[in-house]
Specification:
The protein has 197 residues and is of the alpha+beta class. The protein folds into 2 domains: 6-18 and 114-182, Ferric Hydroxamate Uptake Protein, Chain A, domain 1; 25-104, Arc Repressor Mutant, subunit A. Helices cover 31% and strands 29% of the residues. It contains 6 helices and 11 strands. It has helices at residues 24-37, 41-52, 57-63, 68-80, 99-105, 123-130; strands at residues 6-12, 55-56, 84-89, 92-97, 112-118, 133-138, 141-147, 150-151, 154-158, 161-162, 176-182. The chain has a 5-stranded mixed beta sheet with strand order 5-1-11-9-10, with helices on one face. It has a 3-stranded antiparallel beta sheet with strand order 2-4-3. It is elongated.
Length: 197
């Protein structure tokens, strides 16, 4: 009699870049902090203002017509949610959007799928069991171009580490957590370039 071996595979299908957390309470806490931070018109205006460029806390307070202590309270809430960063230069506090964490903050909304597959199953076959996957041959290599109808470029992490194998070549031999990521364009800098005569 042939003994079949099965492994457990957990998929995170995030909306944006991923930030791993195995602790359910930590995820719930992060979720609550994010939505609490976004549940204020004042804080949303602060995020919009900081999206344009970094600012001193006093400038942000003046823009929002708030006292510095009140603005500081709002800033602390945004920092707790990892939406903004504070840089301290002497007595000057400069605030900026935390682009990396703003995107990854949404990861808590990503669904988690659990499946059981046979040892040696390819990652692509496992993914096809939990999502509608569209592939195309690009430069002779079959690439995932859409998941559940969401077109884009995709990568994956195996236990938090980026992998250099395609999803077809990645075979599964142990229980593993896969984080499936869609690459999203996030502006890191804008350049206004003026041509001299």
């Amino acid at each position: 009699m042939i003994k079949e071996e099965y492994i457990y595979l957990y998929f995170y299908l995030p909306i944006t870049m991923s930030q791993e957390s195995n602790d359910t309470n930590d995820i719930e806490s992060q979720f609550l902090k994010l939505f609490y931070a976004l549940d204020s018109k004042t804080r949303l205006k602060m995020i919009q203002s900081l999206h344009k460029n970094e600012k001193h806390i006093s400038e942000l307070a003046r823009e929002q017509e708030l006292s510095i202590p009140v603005a500081s309270k709002h800033v602390s809430i945004l920092e707790e949610a990892s939406l903004i960063e504070r840089h301290i230069y002497g007595k000057t506090h400069v605030l900026e959007i935390n682009n990396k964490d703003v995107a990854s903050s949404l990861d808590i909304l990503a669904p988690t799928k659990s499946i059981k597959v046979k040892k040696g199953t390819s990652l692509l076959d496992a993914l096809k069991r939990v999502a509608i996957v569209e592939t195309k041959k690009l430069k002779g290599i079959e690439q995932v171009v859409a998941v559940n109808g969401d077109e884009g470029f995709y990568i994956y992490e195996k236990e938090g580490e980026l992998c250099d194998q395609t999803v077809q070549k990645c075979t599964l031999s142990d229980d593993v957590t896969i984080t499936w990521k869609k690459l999203e364009p996030i502006a890191k800098m804008r350049l206004n370039i003026e041509i001299e005569d």
